[in-house]
Design goal:
95 residues, mainly alpha, 94% helix, 0% strand
Amino acid sequence: MFELEALFAFGIGAGLVVLAPVAAAVLGKDNKLVATVASTGRKLTKGSLKVGLFVADKTVSAAKILGSGLADVGDTFAEIVAEAKTELDQSKATK
């Protein structure tokens, strides 16, 4: 849900950034409303991008940890299979 809110904020912020030059052309570059629209758009866009980058970083970190854990499980399982084959070969040799 948090990511959806960030995406929504990004959309609004990006829309305001796009709207700012249009408002400047109509109202004039020195208009306070234009400055507010541009500033708010930049803040919303930058803030939501920060959230997105943070979430992406944490997701990559979690995936690396999970991958490392799965690799350990795979190694352990391979060792168990090798031990089982060795024991099976030894039991065949003693018969």
